Amino acid sequence: MKVYSRACGAIGVVCLLGAISFVHHQVSAAAFRLANPGIKDASRMAAIADHSELAYCTPPFKLVLQRVLNACGLVGQEGRRGCQPTDVKTFASISDADFNALFNPLAQRGAIIMFDDNSDKLDETAKQIIQQKWDERHGARYFFIVARASRKGTIELNRALSHRRANSVLFDIQETIKEPGLDKQIGLLWLGSEYAQLNVDYCGTWQTSRPGKLCDTEAINRSAFISWVDCRL
Amino acid sequence: MKPIRPPSPGILAIVASVIGFIFAAFATFDYAQGLDRQLHSTYCSFIPGLVEATSGPNACTAALYSPYSSIFRGSYWGGIPISLFALGVYAFFFAYGLYLLLARRSASRRSWQSFALLTAGPLVVSLCMFAISLVKLGVFCKLCIGLYVASALLAVSGWLAWKYSGGVAITPSDPDWYPTDPTAKPIGAPAPWYMDLPPDGADIPLGKASLVGMMVLSIAAFAVLPALVYVAALPDYRPYLSGCGVLTESGEKHNALVNIPTAHPVARAVMFVDPLCPSCKSFHERLVGDGFFDRLGINVAMFPLDSDCNWMVTQSVHPGACVVAKAFICADHLARSRELLEWAYGDQQTLQEAGKLGKEVVRNRIRERFPEIDPCLDAHDTQTRLDRMMQFAVANRIPVSTPQFFIGGKRLCEEDTDIGLSYTINQLAPQVAK
Fold it and tell me: Number of residue pairs across A and B with CB atoms under 8 Å?
């Protein structure tokens, strides 16, 4: 009996040692893999959450956008200063028509805020549209205000007027939204009457703040174009 | 009259132990594979080793990731798998069964009875695990079934051992035990070994009373030793836990996130989830099952992987998820956000099918269950709030996958969201695990 019990006890211990050896090997192998994970397949790694990028973000559009962001103080500088007509002419390096054409895909996304002659005052409808467009941000990173003046009056006066119009929209957003960091979100351009004037077609293709009212070449340029821009840079 | 013992208890015990050992070894192998914090296939088969391991969700991964597959999960990454104990126990019963087979009549009565009593242990554990599989998991993994069968066979061998512990009294005329056919066994020839015939007048010894205690200690040692070696060999996981990023913006400035009220929140957590994502459902169930959910103040940001509302997704992974996400936001107005989320997880398969048919079908499902929130789904504010949740994801540059879980501002690595969850939460927010 003792022979059997000793032999079977020894067999049991051998089985146990086998089990222990198996366990130790498996855990050690996992520890090695943990310490040496190898190269991860980049295609299987999840993308990082980012702003939206829609089809209209063509290379020329993004080039202009990048220049606007740099020149207008949204990127890389502490203080926002906005872009004057001369800046835009310089950095855009494209014709008026081509510059306007870049923004055509935003017809459904943006709106044109219209002003009275020689005025920078926003009416109630304009304020509502600004709020509505601001709220329709979705995944966009930048909000653009591109203000203009009609050709009536001097260049200097129109530069100043378009600057005030751009500021009216900006101040309205700042008052309503009251968020920090708006300066780094909102791109401000004022073009006066000397660059990239809109033609009357924009009256019909864009949402304006004065639908059903007279919209001619002068009226459509007494305006500030607003839109979120769904491009990554 | 001669007392003999049949070989059946020993043979059955050996067979049961071999089966149990093999299934326990594969279960341990599957578990140990995951210790590298990567996803692996599992041997979910009745003939493990002969059939390829399978990847993706199956009953074995469900059992493996459940809190019932291991113990001390808060102390060790992944805990100690219970299959380890089975490994040692079946090694013990293999040796014991061999002893019963070889020593049979010469083995003491108490050694047979000890064996019989000890076989009740694996049976009780298997019955408990069977009940858990039935009630809690709702699935039966094949490796687990293999272990249930092994413990049942072992229990049968134990019952036979008990029955034959005192031996079976036979006479030379008993045809069952003592064949009298002269052609089969000529008179005067020795009986074959398997007959285990005693010499005339020999009786089965009773054995020492201490034997039972000694066997209990032995089986305990066999059960525990593999677990001790396992723990000793585990690597230090702490350096890996906090390297998966932080929340750069701790709060959403418009208060767009939904705060889910819980019973005893002791730490803040932010969670990005997709209500139609199976991983989010499993993660939620683990948080609830492990008791963490009610100890967290959870802010939930919806992050549906549905291109209908999520600009970061070019192709919908979970069509219809945007509608459910909006419903979750709307339910917050009625303080029913948790109810809706858990309903969506519970009804996830149906909602996924509905999503493939169109978002209106998903909406109808929601309307049937929560009619009062239907008008809110179209509200402009609801869309804006959902956008803000996803803008919050952008601001924090989270990976476009769900779930994403931040506790105390630190991101829980994806690799730690299953078997390593308890340990990781214990390390990142010890107050939650207490």
Answer: 141
